[in-house]
Fold each of these.
Amino acid sequence: MLEAAARLFAEQGVEAVSMDQVAAAAGVGKGTLFRRFGDKSGLAAALLDARERVLQKAILHGPPPLGPGAPADERLTAFIDAYFDYLLEHLALIRMSETAAPGARYRIGAYRFWHRHVAILLGATPDPEQTAHALLASLAAEHVAALLPELGEQRIRAGLLRLAHAAMPCPSP
Amino acid sequence: MLEAAARLFAEQGVEAVSMDQVAAAAGVGKGTLFRRFGDKSGLAAALLDARERVLQKAILHGPPPLGPGAPADERLTAFIDAYFDYLLEHLALIRMSETAAPGARYRIGAYRFWHRHVAILLGATPDPEQTAHALLASLAAEHVAALLPELGEQRIRAGLLRLAHAAMPCPSP
DNA sequence: TAGAGAATCGGACTATAGTCCGGTTGTGAC
DNA sequence: GTCACAACCGGACTATAGTCCGATTCTCTA
């Protein structure tokens, strides 16, 4: 079922494929598809799951600066870089998983993970949770997809890193 | 037509009202409604138009600090405060106008206006356009709507102002 | 006022996300 | 082997955004 979805999405683009098509290609009924994944954003999330876990594992147990052991500002920079790579690689799929249902982005477990990680790295700021949400807002698939044609990958990445640096409290030497 | 839409939206909430209902209440056919407004986000944008113009006029010609005449950082603070008020007042409607069509937020004229204004105020930073987009990302209706139950109005507002301040280049005295 | 042409209207039509219920298949007890 | 029960499956069904074309009305000219 996931294979069929992945193949169709790759061939025709995530937007252009209907759930009926996926069900037909997978040889199951629509009911089964929806019972398994909830909605289209759930299907997208399931397809991203494996890739997501790789990044999460690198953050929790991998080598620094992405993993533990480096100073917070370096870890934040590494996270933004890595997440931005992941985002660009799967932009259409992530966008679908974030926007199919209203508010989907903020409910799914992955967002909670990224948010918690960034908030911990920002621990020394006045309101780490709010600041983490604000930083992640600039990493929303919808936002990046809209800006990509206008600004290009390099300017967006540089801007994100600059903003993250500005949000960190200056580590007085 | 706009009156009927405004009444229905106020009574039942923006999400719960279908375009069929609006057309029926306005005494016109669906075709007319869509020809006039394009889609549901266009209808929402039309309803917001008057309120939007008030804020835009205050920015262009009103008294400082929102209008011209104050230092850039004070104007930015005033803008975020005023826009956040406007956003909270019409959250559901703005959310509809931003999210009904994919990428709608970044295409509508109003976003261009806010972006240009913020970019001008950030003129002294390395990449004002990118930074303006990043700040406005935290003012997206979808984002604020998702954070409101978790953080509350005060924390969000304070965080926005803090981030804007951090993004400004320090005005050396 | 009559008629031609243009602009506008309205509701039937299509496409798609998501729901629901009757049928089917697997499982365990006797 | 067979019956009862449960879990699962699939496609018909609903709701809604958005399209399209025949019908209507408006306007301008003679």
Amino acid sequence: MPAKFDSDTISFLISDVARLLRSEFDRRTSNVGIGLTPGEARILVGAARAGPVRQTVLAERVGLEAMTLSTYLDRLEERGLLSRMADPADRRAKLVQVTDAAEAVLDDIARIGTELRTDMSATIDPAQLEEIRQGLHQMRVCLIAMRPDCSKGSSKA
Amino acid sequence: MPAKFDSDTISFLISDVARLLRSEFDRRTSNVGIGLTPGEARILVGAARAGPVRQTVLAERVGLEAMTLSTYLDRLEERGLLSRMADPADRRAKLVQVTDAAEAVLDDIARIGTELRTDMSATIDPAQLEEIRQGLHQMRVCLIAMRPDCSKGSSKA
DNA sequence: GCGAAATAATAAGCAACCCTTATTATAAGG
DNA sequence: CCTTATAATAAGGGTTGCTTATTATTTCGC
């Protein structure tokens, strides 16, 4: 079984880096006392960016199923970081919006995210970093196109 | 809350791509009838690469805690894909080794992994791809160095 | 109008992945 | 020999994400 496998392929590296990134983000937010998991932070940021937005739209925007998102929103709402109001235009729907109380947390998240990105790419040339970013973006497009439900035009592309 | 957050940062992209990659790998291995999760495949490949190896060493090499690895090995052993033998040099330790039956599965994994890498980077220039690979490698090194237990000299670097 | 089909959110439950803590068996050092 | 360290694991938990089914509402065809 000689060099049939290479553990430094792009795919292995991506999953390694993703795992390490998540745990490092977790560690840093814990230290600051935010107490949000990376996933929760992600949703909160997505909600902040999207403004008052329906859950289905937000789910599609952050790349999750509606049900998965709903559970996250439950937790964030419990912590008072966002609110769900009835959509006046459709009584089935709810509009999600971050609360004022979320501002400080969002600032912390933005700061920690920036620091983490800086720290983990300290040894990498900015131009190369931009190439990496664009390459990853293209990979995301490719992978989204492979999914069985390729019909929905995901905004992630 | 204008452009305080960018969902196309390296960090978001990495976690997105990792998630999509995992589910696509899962889909492809299911289609072939392997029935291994990406995580299991990863461990199997790691074991194949490392040869007869102690669990602690393998755990460190694949970047998991010993206990996490042990559970994976249980499943792989149940399927007859690897075996644990007593280490003659230390009766506490066990040596992990893939079985002959694993060969076909390993071949499938290698093929699918290669195909997947090719497909997801079809639109990317090979030279740029290599830069991305190296950049991710450096990120992994950085992130490993950040971990609290930075004492253990991880071989992942 | 009005009944059928689509849609928004959610209840319920499961799978994958990874961790920590405590325990057992064995080894190694003073 | 006895304390300490190490290899594996038992036990249990947490995060992330999914699918399926249900309820409330809207919309569309007739």
Amino acid sequence: MTQRLSGEWFARPCIAVARALLGCTLVHRSADGVTAGRIVETEAYLGPHDRASHSFSGRITDRNRAMFGPKGCAYVYLIYGMHWCFNVVAGPPGRPQAVLVRALEPVEGVDLMRTRTGRAGETTRALCRGPGKLCAAMGIGRGLYGADLRGNTLYLLPGALGCGERIARSPRIGIAYAGAFAAKPWRFFVAGNPCVSGPRNLNRDAAGIRPA
DNA sequence: TGTCCGATTGGT
DNA sequence: CCAATCGGACAG
């Protein structure tokens, strides 16, 4: 059996986890079949001081409870009443931090992804491009809230970047309301990868992208 | 209990 | 640029 990422692996600063997840593979073994994708874009959401984080202020609610739980579990939430977003709970012990997985490079179960999303004509590279789209394609929803990613249903396999691949970073997407934290460069992605959502190319400083 | 609004997406 | 769509968060 292939080795999953361990509990210790997640117990380090959230930003380090966000970077290290790039190149790892997310697998979902569901009743409908297996889907998998290589992670190419992430964002780090820190603890109570990070205005953009759902753990901002440190208050535990029904929604953010998973962020306060064990590292290496899934924090799943519904956004805009229609799209699910998937996070990996990470960070130092006791800190409510998580990494949003924003895009995958489809690896397995592409046909099932097309079926789930209802987009028969979608290009493979666009199937998991965006946090809501990847959850739809991977079949991730409320049922996987708090799921232990070291189990056999939804889990992560170690991976690395290819020799030609470079990590780039930029401010996080869609959090303009977060004051000073809106500018923090806590979005990480594989530079130039066509499966990345939003701005993905170096040489385009308008989006605040820089090598990492 | 009432109101406001979002870590998005796709169509105009 | 805007609507979809609904539950979380918070004020009262």
Amino acid sequence: MSEKTGDELPRTLEVLWGRRAGRRTRGPAQALSLDRIVEAAIAIADTDGLPALSMARLAERLGCATMSLYRHVANKDELQMFMMDAAPGPPPDIAPAPADWRGELRRWAVELVAVYHRHPWILHLSAAGPPPMDPGQLAWMDAGLRALGGTPLRPREKMSVLLLVMHYVRGDAHLSSNDLRAAPSPAREPSPAYGALLARLITPERFPALAEILDAGVFDERDGEGPRTDPATHFGFGLDRILDGVETLVRARAGA
Amino acid sequence: MSEKTGDELPRTLEVLWGRRAGRRTRGPAQALSLDRIVEAAIAIADTDGLPALSMARLAERLGCATMSLYRHVANKDELQMFMMDAAPGPPPDIAPAPADWRGELRRWAVELVAVYHRHPWILHLSAAGPPPMDPGQLAWMDAGLRALGGTPLRPREKMSVLLLVMHYVRGDAHLSSNDLRAAPSPAREPSPAYGALLARLITPERFPALAEILDAGVFDERDGEGPRTDPATHFGFGLDRILDGVETLVRARAGA
DNA sequence: CTTTGCTGCGTACGTTATACGCGGAGCGTA
DNA sequence: TACGCTCCGCGTATAACGTACGCAGCAAAG
């Protein structure tokens, strides 16, 4: 409709990247705006969980009719892409090629896990959709890559390292968001503390290694209360292992 | 109803762990069985994707009425837990304390990624539910922990290392399952190869680090065709970084 | 034989996303 | 000033979904 240049972007991306802004002059002033819709949707997902986010509930919260939303959003999938773009906020400021790449990458990871902690639903959404193509998430990737800017790694390796850290952050955030609270789960049991349940199911004959872990009380610990920067937490420990492995390669490259 | 010992397990877990087997004597021989249901559900999710798995479709495939399923399965969530228990199959055989912990852990990771490749829907399901409590998934965790059995790591550290590897495997499997095929996505565009799309959106001024990666052609590569054991793939590279980091700690512990 | 408990299943309901089309509001132009 | 075009908000309707409820029949227990 708009342009027939042959290589038109999907509508969603055009909106996401700002080409599509103001050109509504004809009709009545719009009472709804895309920003208000996305903001409200994020608020619902934050407080009541992702399953509670329906178009009807969203409209109710905004004081409009359900179908009014579809004037600003093509469908629910598109709305969710907008949510994922807006929710993370700006990434930490990282210099293009910092001397302390390890410290900067660590800082980036810690702030990213905080994002997932604030908006756990991002994990569920990005688990279902295509790889990120919105400026919000790409800005985070760019910041993470900047931390590696000064290292002698090849571009492909930088990307692999960043994905490695991202995967770990996401995995840990997912686990801890399910551990600490039984929030977004409808009609879940009072949850007798994972470890206690496992203790009643696992027999040393069948799962010897797990039984050993359980006996050591690993699952009883209430991890995640202290700051996640702490290397003593599960998260900090794993992150340091990753950084150690990357540092090994960086040093080998720098020495050669 | 059955037992009032005070500490009764959730029904789902009782079925999952085998306590609940045969005690149907009264009625007619059951034409449906839990195993058949779960098997058919897995088949649907494998071929047509998770969104295509509805109770109605499942019943149609089994040649029974929709509501008949509920005689064997409490609800859809429970069915999905059964699916996640059955789909992975048995983990690789790993000795209790292998000398080559690194090789064994690597083998475990490679086989696990193959599981996720075969059943991509496991990623979506486990992203929504509680931490795994079924014997199927716990057997995998036990096998992974066995690989670390001979190392001087503390129990808590073993668990952290295993989670680290699991998170990475899941993350990579998720990415590659979305990359290679546009399968479970309804009405997705022909997908002009992620990298090509990014190239039209990313400007070096706004995303300098990403632009550099893109210029290097990192996203153009058709990764994932070769065997995932290959250290040259994204997956193999990241996995080796992890193992390097763990090895650093193992050596430090052994030397001290 | 009667009773009891389990099977499969038909019906019905509430919730979901969303296709379609109407009425009205305001700006551009005549 | 008046017309018309365009865009907004919304009411209605539909198809698919998960599943609560209760009935009919069959087989073993009494």
